[in-house]
Design a protein that fits this description.
- The structure holds 3 protein chains of 3 kinds.
- Helix content of chain A is about 80%, strand content about 0%.
- By secondary structure, chain A is mainly alpha-helical.
- By secondary structure, chain B is mainly α.
- Chain B folds into 2 domains: about 35 residues, no CATH class; about 230 residues, Orthogonal Bundle (MetI-like fold).
- Chain B starts with a helix and ends with a helix.
- Helix content of chain C is about 45%, strand content about 15%.
- In chain C, strands 1, 2, 3, 4, 5, 6, 7, 8, 9, 10 and 11 form an 11-stranded mixed beta sheet that branches.
- In chain C, helix 3 crosses helix 14 and helix 9 packs across helix 10.
- Chains in contact: A-B, A-C, B-C.
- Chains A and B meet through helix 1, helix 6, helix 7, helix 8 and helix 9 of A and helix 1, helix 5, helix 6, helix 7 and helix 8 of B.
């Protein structure tokens, strides 16, 4: 009996390890391939003739003299001034995250503590809001923004990003606050605190794991956005993702694909660092946030 | 919580959503009920670098006068929703009458772009969503069984596909799938057919899009389930073991039921995002083989030059309705939970 | 932007002599230019800033990829976001449909004495735009490969192209010797336009917005395209200019229908081999069905002035932009476009467009509802090209889709 269970266990483990191994390769391979390829020339990156060219850099050696070249990075960062897009991204993402979290924390807390029906309906409305295609929203904003002379500004993009990401933020933070026992803030109120004082002194100190996790998601939504940033920002305020898209060329001129590859790698690199630092918060926050989902 | 306190807490988030999402939805809906005024046209001579021709143009003054009378345009009711670009009720009825059997009816329906897009969107949604749920759970269990030292790195790698912008992630894959990319070229070598390309074959393109969809969203369900597994009570697992249940049985009877609330949450988000599939189609240059409601909106708003707001509005509202229908079972469940908690 | 300003500063230095003579109109006004981001427009906008940047109170240039998607919204408020938009045939129509650009007759009289009459885009007696460059699709051929396959001369009709393609395939040189911009959407619609016009088709019934593409000319056009597509790369439904240019520069095709504006990039050394560039010949677009009209649409790019702005801003903007369209610009940027400006000396890159225009190709129609037809063609012909629908059915679908859009836009009732 014992041996039988033991052997089943092994099969189970073997299968699951194989699956995890396969998944990790599939998840990582495109990134490793792209990072590797970003130091080659375009002929090697595509390498129609023989894919091993991409590994050994045959054309790269022929064109530049070495098996690796940083031409793509030089072109993107120096020639096309990609660093400006990076700076714009940092500003926009920073403020989007801060404002999203402030709004979402207050709203999520209120929804988690209110037993009234309308709290449920607000949550449902937020779901419906999230279903609205962003392209329609963005096209609708353009005319009023031009009328009010606020089109193209970083601030405008920040407010829009905050607003259209509120439904997700609200849902996550709401379910997170549901996991913080009601007794904590209610006993503070019995002691004479107002609701806001109870929130500030009792809830705020314990909410950070959930807020950090939600913040990471707000960060990613703003950092990765294309629909809003490509249409609502003027050229000097453009962020990284639309800049990468424009390296690929337009109707009139052929782009430089290797600039785009280098920029993609540069745009992804901060995310690697981010995951390394925050993986525990992401996981613990999701646990706290989603269990009651 | 008192109504007044609730109001102040919810005010910032609610006003942001009302201003930037709810009001636009209302205005989009209103716009979808109207069509443009009849355009007053004039024919005149137009000249340019390539000679002169008689061309038509809009008499803007006359048209402006019409517009001043009723700025929204002509009221069309739900007409736009039922026209050929959307539900196409008249065309469907005609095809029904003309059809000789189910096959010819389906064939006729597939000529209407709304239904063609719907077929792709639903196929995509109902393949990707369960696949992501099941694989996500399986990988979460697998990672949970890994030695502690390896878990961190496994989670780190797993998050990569989710954390990269759709437009960037699918761009990378699109290059690899290209006839000249590693995957495309390898496929050609395997099947020894140099004319075999993913971008010229509808079934292959659908498969590529679906695989991309799974690859991109799997980390989301994986992380949520992995987190959920940490909360499975140890004594329940012990009890199952004592009762003689093996790993698989424990999995089905103990772990999965415990994770059900999480499954609802993930399903809700996945269904919604998959139904609005858009960026992969554009990045994979798959428009010849797959369209979705979102690509129609783009076409109405951008490709048409002067935007067709009514048509785009109707498609947007239909998207919301589609999402609402898809989500309704999960929403009903949440409502029950909510009622149970508040009483 | 900084980079562009820096370039402009360089241009100022080199153009010092002319800057003194430039008439920039009233000073201290605001000039705000919107345009697509490509070298010819960079040159025109750069020259305007170099000449008149110091005269203007505010001078901004916004060149970006998706101008078409935002120009109407940007010009609607009063004052408009931009004082000038650089447009082409179809985008001028798009702006005029909403009455957003002003007639330029008096400004042309005051500042445009150096313009040649064919630069003026005149509609019903009103000058609505000042064109500065031309463009069209035309044939690119690899003379060495045609020779190798035993084809003599340059193909000038669709039939000759197909014969040549068959010869190349039969000789085992290339399996897919033809490239065309057939990406689903705008490009696929445009390819239909080329052959439809070459077969003498009229898009609309005379004097009305009723569609007229489901006609013998439409069927003939589709038949020609299908015969050519037979020899095109299997991925052709995902190929736009960037992909076809890449195929050409990689030496993988022998004949292509591409834009003239790509000629310069194809002929220069960058991204290609000596073998390809030295054997590339640019010639007129082919004729079809025994007719004499080349399968191409002629395009121009030009300057418009927004309607909803102060007259003084309009005057300063016009003076700055149009004042720069002179031979000095040609001296510096001759090979960046096929210019319509005096002093342009056509180089080898311009040969194809010149021959196509001389051959009597039709301009892209400036009709208010053409964009809806183009959009319908772009989305409904796919089934035919994939081989799942007959030409008649596909064209009937096009007309039905067009009617739906045109009704919504008020052109059909």
């Amino acid at each position: 009996m014992a041996t039988k269970a033991e052997s089943r266990l092994t099969t189970f483990k073997l299968v699951s390890f194989a699956l995890v191994g396969a998944w990790l390769i599939i998840a990582a391979f495109p990134f490793l391939w792209t990072i590797w390829g970003s130091f080659k020339v375009q002929g090697d990156f595509f390498s129609k003739a023989d894919w091993t060219n991409a590994v050994f850099g045959v054309l790269t050696t022929r064109e530049t003299g070495g098996a690796f070249t940083s031409n793509g990075y030089f072109g993107a960062w120096v020639q096309e001034e990609f660093w400006k897009n990076v700076l714009n991204t940092l500003v926009i993402v920073f403020f989007t995250v801060i404002i999203s979290l402030t709004f979402g924390t207050l709203g999520g807390y209120a929804l988690a503590r209110s037993g009234f029906r309308y709290a449920f309906w607000i949550l449902m409305a937020a779901l419906i809001f999230r279903a609205m295609p962003h392209i329609t929203l963005v096209s609708g904003y353009m005319l009023p923004f031009f009328e009010w002379n606020i089109w193209g500004l970083k601030g405008t993009a920040i407010i829009v990003l905050v607003a259209i990401n509120q439904p997700f933020t609200l849902w996550m933070l709401h379910s997170f606050f549901k996991n913080i026992p009601k007794d904590m803030d209610e006993s503070a109120m019995v002691d004479g605190c107002t609701r806001f004082q109870a929130f500030w002194h009792v809830i705020v100190p314990v909410m950070w794991p959930g807020v950090i996790t939600t913040g990471l998601f707000s960060f990613l939504l703003a950092y990765n956005d294309y629909a809003v940033t490509s249409m609502l920002l003027s050229k000097p305020n453009e962020t990284m993702v639309p800049a990468v898209a424009s390296f690929l060329g337009s109707v009139q001129v052929q782009g430089n694909i290797m600039f785009a590859v280098a920029a993609v790698v540069s745009a992804t690199a901060p995310l690697f660092v981010l995951i390394l630092f925050f993986q525990r918060q992401i996981v613990s926050g999701l646990t706290a946030g989603a269990v009651k989902g | 919580m008192k109504h007044r306190t609730f109001f102040w807490f919810i005010l910032p988030t609610l006003s942001a959503m009302i201003l930037f999402i709810a009001l636009p939805i209302v205005s989009v809906f209103i716009q979808s009920l109207f069509v443009e005024h009849e355009q007053v046209l004039v024919v005149s001579e137009s000249c340019g670098p390539f000679g002169c021709t008689q061309t038509t143009s809009i008499d803007t003054e006359a048209t402006e006068a019409l517009r001043a009378d009723s700025p929204l345009g002509q009221y069309n009711g739900l007409g736009t929703y039922f026209d050929r670009s959307h539900l196409a009720t008249a065309e469907v009825a005609e095809i029904w009458k003309a059809s000789t059997g189910l096959a010819s009816f389906v064939d006729g329906i597939m000529d209407l772009k709304f239904y063609k897009a719907l077929v792709f969107t639903l196929t995509y949604t109902f393949v990707v969503t369960p696949a992501v749920l099941i694989l996500g759970l399986a990988i979460a269990v697998g990672v949970n069984n890994l030695p502690k030292a390896l878990r961190g790195i496994a989670i780190f790698i797993s998050l990569l596909p989710f954390l990269v912008a759709t437009i960037v992630g699918s761009m990378i894959l699109s290059w690899m799938l290209d006839g000249e990319g590693i995957i495309g070229a390898t496929l050609q070598n395997i099947f020894n057919d140099p004319s075999l390309t993913i971008k010229s074959s509808t079934p292959l393109m659908w498969i590529a899009l679906i695989i991309y969809g799974i690859w991109h969203t799997l980390p989301f369900s994986f992380i949520v389930f992995y987190a959920g597994l940490q909360t499975v009570p140890g004594d329940t697992l012990e009890a199952a073991k004592v009762d003689g249940a093996n790993k698989w049985q424990t999995m089905i009877n103990v772990v999965v039921p415990h994770l059900m609330p999480l499954v609802s949450f993930v399903t809700l988000m996945l269904l919604m995002d998959n139904f609005r599939v858009f960026e992969p189609i554009v990045s994979f240059q798959a428009e010849a083989h797959a369209q979705s409601l979102s690509t129609f909106i783009l076409s109405d708003l951008r490709e048409a030059g002067n935007p067709l707001y009514a048509s785009a509005g109707a498609t947007s509202i239909l998207t919301i309705i589609g999402v609402a229908i898809l989500l309704s079972p999960v929403v009903v469940r949440t409502w029950r939970d909510f009622s149970a908690k508040s009483h | 932007m900084l980079f562009r300003n820096f370039m402009a500063a360089g241009a100022v230095a080199s153009l010092m002599g002319t800057a003194a003579f430039a008439d920039c109109g009233p000073s201290g006004n605001s000039v705000r230019i919107l345009g697509s981001d490509f070298p010819a427009i960079q040159a025109v906008a750069g020259a305007a800033e170099a000449n008149c940047g110091s005269n203007a109170g505010e001078f901004t240039i916004n060149l970006r990829d998706n101008t078409r998607d935002m120009m109407n919204q940007a010009l609607t408020p009063n004052p408009a976001e931009y004082t000038s938009v650089i447009v082409a045939n179809s985008t001028l129509t798009q702006l005029m449909n909403d009455d957003l650009v002003r007639p330029l007759n008096d400004l042309v009289a005051k500042y445009g004495s150096h313009l040649s009459p064919n630069q003026l885009i005149t509609i019903d007696g009103n000058v609505m735009a000042v064109a500065f460059m031309a463009n069209s699709q035309h044939l690119f051929t690899r003379t060495d490969i045609l020779e190798q396959a035993g084809v003599s001369g340059t193909p000038s009709t669709v039939d000759e192209i197909i014969d040549a393609a068959e010869a190349i395939r039969a000789a085992g040189i290339m399996e897919h010797p033809i490239a065309m911009n057939m990406k689903v959407g705008w490009n696929v619609g445009e390819v239909f336009n080329l052959f439809f016009l070459a077969h003498g088709g009229e898009m609309f019934q005379a004097g009305s917005a009723e569609p007229n593409v489901n006609s013998p000319a439409g069927l003939a056009a589709l038949a020609d395209i299908a015969r050519l597509a037979e020899y095109a790369h299997p991925d052709h439904l995902s190929h736009a200019s960037n992909e076809t240019q890449a195929l050409w520069e990689a030496g993988q095709v022998a004949m292509a229908m591409m834009w003239g504006s790509r000629g310069g990039a194809v002929l220069d050394a960058e991204g290609s081999t000596e073998e390809v560039t030295s054997n590339t010949l640019l010639s007129a677009a082919p004729t079809a069905g025994g007719g004499s009209i080349p399968a191409a649409t002629l395009w121009w790019d030009g300057v418009t002035i927004a309607k909803n702005i102060a007259d003084a801003d309009a005057e300063a903007t016009f003076a700055a932009l149009v004042g720069g369209l002179k031979s000095d610009l040609m001296a510096e940027h001759n090979d960046k476009a096929i210019w319509l400006i005096d002093g342009f000396t056509p180089g080898p890159a311009a040969a194809g467009v010149s021959a196509t225009a001389a051959g009597g190709a039709k301009p892209y129609p400036m009709i208010p509802y053409i964009n809806f037809m183009h959009n319908a063609l772009g989305s409904e012909l796919v089934d035919f090209y994939k081989g799942t629908e007959s030409a008649e059915d596909a064209l009937a679908d096009v007309e039905a889709a067009y009617r739906t859009a045109a009704k919504e836009a008020g052109f059909l009732q």
